[in-house]
Amino acid sequence: MNAAAPDGGPLAVGLPAQRPFEGPASVLVAQGFTPDAMPLGLDAALPLCGGGDRIRRRLTADLGFGWQSSLRGVIDRAVLRQEATGADWLTLPPLMLSGPAGVGRTHVARRIASQAELPHVGVTVGGAFGIEQLQPTACGPDMILPSAPVLAMAVSRCANPIVSVCGIDDLDAAGQTDLARMIDSATAERWVDYACGATVDLRHVNWMIQVQEPAALTPTLLRLLEPVPLRFPEGQDVPLHLVEILAEAAVDRGVVDRVGALAEDGLAYLARFRGERSVARIYADACQWLDAQFEQ
Question: Which CATH code is given to the segment(s) 27-229?
Fold first, then answer.
């Protein structure tokens, strides 16, 4: 595959020389504290997903986001690394998706997950939530549930889901340190999940940390993340952006196979809101239009 930079020139990847990967396409992600069977089937190997020529073509040719040069570079390097090592699944470095409110950080994460055929789970931390969804704690008679990444792996039967973390701007330093331990490969390999009674290997999780201001992150967490600044589309990129959002809404509403010739009407409807830049608002308008067409 010949990758190109956003300006049309060759893409400088800078991959080190590596041997072809020799290993399984599935991994054991949990080791129980006792010989008893673990809940959620975590004592069975889970597949590593997001590989194959078809998915690589989707990620390079169909993902979109041509105006997001940093994002495109990350994806292209991941695909080239996959081909160079023979590790036939998607592995992304932990990403810091930054940018102004409404720029579409969650839209980006969901779009990558959709094109790579990986499960996606969104987690909100900070504020009243703290880090509870990532590190649940016991409180009286309340049941402790496994952390969100572990649940995502168990339910989807996939060892490398995409996990989007929102609200990090409001998470205190102690919470950010705990999150860093889940991301850092040095500690993520044996992360303790008391609800499962096991240590869980989180190294295969594809982390996407959403933040408006990178300065809100502690140095410990910041050093683990590859920065991916996002911006709003302009000019000729706007119609392509609307197409992507309409497609996402159609998939979520279960009508993607029924839109057909109506797509032009849907895009014309969304084009009326050209002054609206928030992806969440445009997505809501797309869902409203689809519901009206198909009486959801």
Answer: 3.40.50.300
